[in-house]
Amino acid sequence: MILEMKVPSPGESIKEVEIATWLVKDGDYVEKDQAIAEVDSDKATLELPAEASGIITLKAEEGDAVAVGAVVCLIDTDGAKPSGSAPAAAAKPATETPKAETPKAVEAPKAEAAKPNPATTTYAAGIPSPAAKKILDEKNIQPSGITGTGKDGRITKDDAVNAVPSMGTPTGGNRGSERTKLSMLRRKVAERLVAAKNETAMLTTFNEVNMTPINLIRNEYKDAFKAKHGGVGLGYMSFFTKAVTRALKLFPDVNSMIDGNEKITYDFADISIAVSGPKGLMVPVVRNAENLTFRGIESEIKRLAIKARDGQITVDDMTGGTFTITNGGVFGSMLSTPIINPPQSGILGMHNIIERPIAVNGQVEIHPMMYVALSYDHRIIDGRESVGFLVAVKEGLENPAELLMDSNPLKALEL
């Protein structure tokens, strides 16, 4: 029986996917539920499992864009599992490859070996005389770049006087290049970023946060938090998420979007958290973050980060979101202007923490400081709301015990 495998729908709005990688070869025997391909949509990379066991016939090439529901391969369920064919197939390229490469490896040394013979007829070739060496040193010229006209190829004083310093023309370096097709996900990200710049009135406002209060709480409770909550760490993201959800309640315009000529304002906070995955930046969503505890936020971020790292993130995980937080600080960024994640109207950028001197009650003190940036769509968010929102975030982070924990860190951390 021949089974036609069709592209399943990764999500409601997705009509087309791209074959990123075939994990099997044409004619291979595959087991049911075995991953046979990775397919890129404009939102995520997904694995395509075999729907039955049998001999597979591929109907699409890597890089092909195929419509959802289209046939990408056939599986002959009556095909018997071959014995010993896989090692033979694997061995074939291994024996062929050296044959193709061997002539290149042999010819190159011969060509190189032929060049130096005339120039190295005696030990004196390319050696400057004392007077020539002094002149070359003054000109900062290496003798290796000069052909000597003296006896046996020795570099003379006249050779050194007439030598012209090199202007740095590159010689002998690698000048190769490689052209690869962008994945569908990467192309969609590019389109969205360009659209965000072209279709929004994006501005960025900045502030700085003294991280000492958060560090004091983390240093006091992080070990107990991790032990109590099954290895979940008490990181900075839960504090920032709490500070953002609090600020969104105070400035609801930042939690809004434009839809045509209308403004949609949300009474919930679905926070998109930018995380790095093997396919690039992913932005999964922490749903109803305003109702989650510190443990709940940290657990959800950890779960989504692991899925992104393992390539298991789904379209549903990244659909929606009313506001985004991105942390360039983990890569060493001191300051940046994050790009809005459309159709959202705001994004908060975190940066690295650096100890800097600041004025505290008229005294100069050293504190761990972080610059924060809010990029926002000025079509829907005015300066008052944007600056007020970022100040509210700063206030929450610099007074976390009172504003984010109701003056009871033990209860807030569920210890």
How would you describe what is shown here?
This protein is 33% helix and 24% strand. By secondary structure, it is an alpha+beta fold. The protein folds into three domains: 1-114, OB fold (Dihydrolipoamide Acetyltransferase, E2P) (Beta Barrel), CATH 2.40.50.100; 116-163, E3-binding domain (Dihydrolipoamide Transferase, Irregular), CATH 4.10.320; 201-412, Chloramphenicol acetyltransferase-like domain (Chloramphenicol Acetyltransferase, 2-Layer Sandwich). Strands 9, 12, 15, 16, 17, 18 and 19 form a seven-stranded mixed sheet that branches. Strands 1-8-6-3 form a four-stranded antiparallel sheet, with no helix packed on it. The radius of gyration is 32 Å and the shape is extended. The two termini are 60 Å apart.
What is the residue-averaged pLDDT?
Answer: 84
CATH class of the largest domain: Alpha Beta
Alpha-carbon Rg, integer: 32 Å
Residue windows where pLDDT falls under 50 for at least 5 positions: 85-120
Write a short abstract of this structure.
The protein has 415 residues and is of the alpha+beta class.
Q: Secondary-structure blueprint of this entry?
A:
Elements (H helix, E strand, L loop, with lengths): L1 E5 L9 E7 L6 E2 L4 E6 L4 E5 L4 E5 L6 E3 L3 E6 L8 H30 L15 H10 L17 H6 L21 H16 L2 E9 L1 H17 L7 H15 L5 E4 L2 E4 L5 E3 L1 E3 L2 E3 L2 E2 L7 H16 L5 H4 L4 E5 L18 E5 L2 E8 L2 E15 L5 H16 L1 H4 L5 H4 L3
Parallel strand pairs: 12-16, 16-17
Antiparallel strand pairs: 1-8, 2-4, 2-7, 3-6, 4-5, 6-8, 9-19, 10-11, 12-15, 13-14, 17-19, 18-19
Helix pairs in contact: 6-7, 6-9
